[in-house]
Design brief:
The protein is mainly beta. It has two domains: about 90 residues, Sandwich (Immunoglobulin-like), CATH 2.60.40; about 120 residues, Lipid/polyisoprenoid-binding, YceI-like (Lipocalin, Beta Barrel), CATH 2.40.128.110. The protein contains two helices and 16 strands. β7 and β8 form a beta hairpin. The protein is rod-shaped and about 90 Å long.
């Protein structure tokens, strides 16, 4: 009978008992400094995470420009400026964002900038910022009007002279016209009374004009003499930088005769809806 070598027997016995592993001194085992060293500093808060932003506590955001109810002529340079001040009045930095109540697509950034492309309309401009300490500041300026320099409401006296059925007529009345915000179109109306055969009859006018870049108005003055005739007179006028509208019209009304009139109307309001 052959005997199993002692080494082979040792291997077989090892498979039948819990494994053990031994190292000679200095050749293995737990390292020194690897297992614990990374975790000794992990999770430490450094840099901005430990920075305190107490200087932002109680800060305020002020809009310096534009001003409430300011009118900005269409296409001109508009300045937007805001400031952030600490409780002690010290200027602070933070990103300022701007939006408009009238034009949802309009958006700007910065504490100071200029623009020439403001949308037409009556705007409430809001500046807002979120400070490093988490506070959210908002400041709104209301009723900033952006429109053509000549846009607005005009009112004044107009007078008409002429003949109706060979009877001379004259009348004086009040007309109101509105030049739209973009400065391209104006319309309005007026009324006066004429005495015809002993009867007071209203003579109504409807004015419609296109506004030309050189400041002239070209359009019609539509007359309506109730019960007798309606007629569109060619009319033209002009606007001056002071904000005054002048207009005149004239025409030979078939079967009735020549009629002419004029209107002088200063601007009474910047409103473009009457």
């Amino acid at each position: 009978m052959r005997t199993v070598p002692s080494i082979f027997a040792s291997i077989l016995l090892t498979g039948c008992a819990p494994a053990t592993l031994t190292f000679e001194e200095g050749t293995g085992g737990l390292g020194t400094g690897w297992a614990t060293e990374p975790y000794e500093t992990y999770g430490e808060v450094t840099g901005s995470q430990t920075t305190e932003f107490s200087e932002y506590d109680g800060a305020v955001l002020n809009v310096l420009s534009p001003s409430p109810s300011e009118t900005v002529p269409l296409g001109t340079v508009a300045v937007f400026e805001a400031e952030i001040l600490g409780r002690d009045g010290t200027p602070l930095d933070s990103l300022v964002e701007w939006q408009s109540s009238t034009a949802p697509g309009w958006y700007q950034q910065g504490a100071l900038f200029e623009t020439t492309d403001l949308p037409l309309g009556l705007h409430d401009f809001t500046a807002q910022t979120t400070l490093p300490n988490g506070d959210h500041l908002v400041h709104t300026v209301s009723s900033v009007r952006v429109q053509h320099p000549f846009a607005g409401t005009y009112a004044g006296l107009y007078d008409v002279d002429g003949t109706v059925l060979n009877f001379p007529i004259t009348c004086i009345g009040v007309a109101i016209l509105v030049l739209e915000a973009d400065g391209t179109y104006a319309d309005g109306d007026g009324e006066c009374l004429i005495s015809l055969l002993g009867i007071d009859v209203p003579l109504n006018f409807l004015f419609e004009f296109d506004f030309e870049p050189d400041g002239t108005l070209i359009g019609t003055a539509g007359a309506d003499l109730v019960g007798f005739f309606t007629y569109n007179f060619p009319a033209e006028g002009s606007l001056d930088p002071a904000g005054s509208l002048s207009m005149s019209f004239e025409g030979d009304v078939p079967l009735f005769g020549l009629m002419s009139g004029s209107l002088d109307a200063p601007r009474i309001s910047l409103d473009t809806v009457f």
